[in-house]
UniProtKB/TrEMBL annotation:
Stated name of the protein: Elongation factor 4
Topological relation to the membrane, as annotated: Peripheral membrane protein
Keyword Cell membrane among UniProt keywords: yes
Reactions catalysed according to its record: GTP + H2O = GDP + phosphate + H(+)
Binding site for GTP: 16-21, 133-136
PANTHER family per the UniProt record, alphabetical: TRANSLATION FACTOR GUF1 HOMOLOG, CHLOROPLASTIC, TRANSLATION FACTOR GUF1-RELATED
Length: 600
């Protein structure tokens, strides 16, 4: 289609403000999906099967829309990932667009995530169309929320749309506004090809399917193409659009959005942010802004049953096919045996992977406490990076330990100001500034070590603000800190998987809290078990798990042999979820005991 009839846009919203519902409604109004498919989709969501939903499967859908002027437009709706951990992916998806719908829940108003993505959209020079959603709810505060938006963006009230995505009210106006307000894409079909990869998925027949926005030139299925960052050349298996199913086309030209099935075997060969060009007449420069996202949070993942190791490995490999930012390598822990050290973009990314391993691959796993990556300067001058506390060298060898610091923005109603400040102070945070982007709301900016954020910070924020607080964070820099390894010894043996790195001032308090928590979760054995915490080579806390006196079999009066057998069987099964450390059984809860120590 002619460029002037193309519109590329996305939807930005805080979680649960109605992005998916609005997207589905737009697809339905334009006849892109049938009412029958729509019903299936609704059913899916009721069964918590939303991963299978149309909008989620195809993150760039082409719709055809006839405007009231009688002209037909090609509208490309590009999906953006919903979470802060994926802000690089969000920024690439935004770069593929000229406009954004800013969806704000009429009962909630503007939230931190809305702001974070809005700033990214403004950075990308997008035209913003504010949409207040859920006006059907009795608790909707349309006028108030419109005022918040006006204060923030200067949008006059008559340009702010008020809709109910659920009931369809005013949704047609959203499409009209996209046509009228979002600029048509620029780009020159006669220049050498440059197409931005803004998302991808792995298909077992077609290889990596790259979702692209063509900026210059054209893509034809018969061309040989090149991934610019790696120089890899390939012949596309197929070129097409999502409508919303994959549909082959004979050309994608400058301004258009679609997909290239590359036949490549892993998403790391054709990453988000990369530029695809022609291998016969390549562009001189790639599109700006490509980078490799770096994992920030690390944890060990171990099978509960040793024999599941291979299955776990295969599951991680499969997940990695679709997720270039998941990294893992084999790790051997003395306590947990064979498993994997995994790196994630953030805590939420880690939770998604953990849940997928359990739900989709039916694996029983133990996940160790998350850690950040430290930069350790040795006395020899050498700098080593460690992402597992167990690997920290002896204190005598260390000159300095540096840890990652983040900039965090917290958005909360004014009444929780004090409790949020207190939370941040307890987590070694440094206050930077405050702003008031909406009435009775404050946005606080802090610097805080990442290691403090990854232990229940978000949950704690939610509970302190009764669910109203929201946050956003990004990496700032590595800074030296007075850090020590906090070790745990069980029956005199250090347990590698229980070690953490903490600030020296907190070592004593955390050591004590950890020991008393472990005392609760480690079951009594046939003998006394000493649990000790040590920091900097000194024991700082100790507790005893008293020996179990009663013989389990004493309960079976005399002779009932089958009952006795059953009891022994049951005991044996119970043991399976335990890990033996020396001759002590440690249950999996113990490995996460370091989480949630903060507020005790
Ligand atoms: N009453 C009412 N509920 C709505 C409306 N739009 C969405 N919802 C509901 O709000 C909830 C969240 O909507 P989603 O569309 O899943 O929100 P989302 O922003 O896509 O959420 P994530 O996918 O989690 O980011 C769902 O229970 C919807 O049914 C609306 O206009 N009115």
């Amino acid at each position: 289609m002619e460029k002037e009839f193309i519109r590329n846009f996305c939807i930005i919203a805080h979680i649960d403000h109605g992005k998916s519902t609005l997207a589905d409604r737009l697809l339905q109004i334009t006849g892109t999906i049938s009412d029958r498919q729509m019903v299936e989709q609704v059913l899916d969501s009721m069964e918590l099967e939303r991963e299978k939903g149309v909008t989620i499967k195809a993150s760039a859908v082409r719709m055809l829309y006839r405007h009231s002027s009688g002209k037909e437009y090609e509208l490309n709706l590009i999906d953006t990932p919903g979470h802060v951990d994926f802000s690089y992916e969000v920024s690439r998806a935004l770069m593929a667009c000229e406009g954004a719908l800013l969806v704000v829940d009429a009962t909630q108003g503007i939230e931190a995530q809305t702001l974070a993505n809005l700033y990214l959209a403004l950075d990308a020079d997008l035209t913003i169309i504010p949409v207040i959603n859920k006006i059907d709810l009795p608790s909707a505060r349309v006028a108030e929320v419109a005022q918040e938006i006006q204060n923030l963006l200067g949008t006059p009230p008559e340009e702010i749309l008020a809709v109910s995505a659920k009931e369809g009210t005013n949704v047609e106006k959203v499409l009209e506004a996209v046509v009228e307000r979002v600029p048509s894409p620029r780009g020159d079909t006669s220049l050498p090809l440059r197409a931005l990869v803004f998302d991808s998925h792995y298909d077992s027949y077609k290889g990596v399917v790259a979702y692209v926005r063509v900026f210059d030139g054209m893509i034809r299925p018969e061309d040989t193409l090149r991934v610019m960052s790696s120089g890899i050349d390939f012949r596309p298996v197929e070129v097409g659009i999502f409508s919303p199913d994959m549909r082959p086309v004979s050309v994608l030209s400058a301004g258009e959005v679609g997909y290239v099935a590359t036949g490549l075997k892993t998403v790391s060969e054709c990453r988000v942010g990369d530029t695809i060009t022609s291998s016969t007449s390549p562009a001189a420069e790639p599109l700006p802004g490509f980078r490799h996202p770096k994992p920030m949070v690390f944890a060990g993942i171990y099978p509960v049953e040793n024999e599941d190791y291979e299955r776990l490995k295969e599951a991680l490999e499969k997940l990695q096919l679709n997720d270039a930012s998941l990294v893992f390598q084999p790790e051997k822990s003395q306590a947990l045996n064979f498993g994997f050290r995994c790196g994630f973009l953030g805590l939420f990314h880690m939770e998604i992977i953990q849940e997928r391993l359990e739900r989709e691959y039916d694996l029983d796993i133990v996940v160790t406490a998350p850690s950040v990556e430290y930069e350790v300067v040795l006395r020899t001058g050498e700098v080593v990076r460690i992402d597992s506390p167990a690997l920290l060298p002896d204190e005598g060898l260390i000159e300095e330990i540096r840890e990652p610091w983040m900039v965090v923005q917290i958005f909360t109603p004014m009444e929780y100001y004090g409790t949020v400040m207190d939370l941040v102070r307890r987590r070694r945070g440094i206050f930077r500034e405050q702003e008031y982007p909406a009435p009775n709301r404050v946005q606080l900016t802090f610097e805080i070590p990442l290691s403090e954020l990854i232990v229940d910070f978000f949950d704690e924020l939610k509970s302190r603000t009764r669910g109203y607080g929201s946050m956003d964070y990004h990496f700032a820099e590595y800074r030296p800190g007075d850090l020590v390894k906090l070790e745990v010894l069980v029956a005199g043996e250090p347990v590698d998987a229980l070690a953490t790195i903490v600030h020296r001032d907190q070592a004593y308090h955390k050591g004590q809290a950890l020991v008393s928590k472990l005392k609760e979760v480690i079951p009594r054995q046939l003998f006394d078990v000493a649990i000790q915490a040590a920091a900097g080579g000194r024991i700082i806390s100790r507790a005893n798990v008293k020996a179990l006196r009663k013989d389990v079999l004493a309960k079976c009066y005399g002779g009932d042999v089958t009952r006795k057998k059953k009891l022994l069987e049951k005991q044996k099964r119970g043991k399976k979820r335990m890990k033996m450390i020396g001759n002590v059984e440690i249950p999996q809860e113990a490995f996460l005991a370091v989480l949630g120590l903060e507020e005790d």
